Amino acid sequence: MHNCQVFFITDVMMITKMTSLQGEVLLTQGVYDLDQRVRDEMLDRVRSFNDFTPGNDPHREHDFGAFIFREHHIFWKIDTS
Question: Are strands 6-8 and 72-77 parallel, antiparallel or unpaired?
């Protein structure tokens, strides 16, 4: 792993203009402590994530994603339970 801080975003229910889903977004303290503009940009990347492949989404559930954002490894998860 690179020398970068790993932030986890778990139990994310995305709320977009295209859906009526409602829920809450939970962030780790490390993500919350980012500058709001940086945090908003990162959350926009989560909302628009569409890089699903058989390798990272074998069940085609589109409920988990990972990407690098400003040298940080970002992991997110949608939990509907």
Answer: parallel
Report the SS3 class of residue 42: helix
Q: The whole model's pTM is what?
A: 0.66
Pairwise CA distance, residues 23 & 37, whole Å: 22
Q: Which of 35, 36, 49 is nearest to 78 (CA)?
A: 49
Which residue in the block uniquely carries the two structure tokens 């409602």?
Answer: 22
For the stretch 14-55, pLDDT in tens is 333 334 456 677 888 888 888 999 999 998 998 888 888 888
What's the rounded Cα separation, in Å, for the pair 41 and 67? 13
What token pair was written down for 53?
Answer: 């492949």
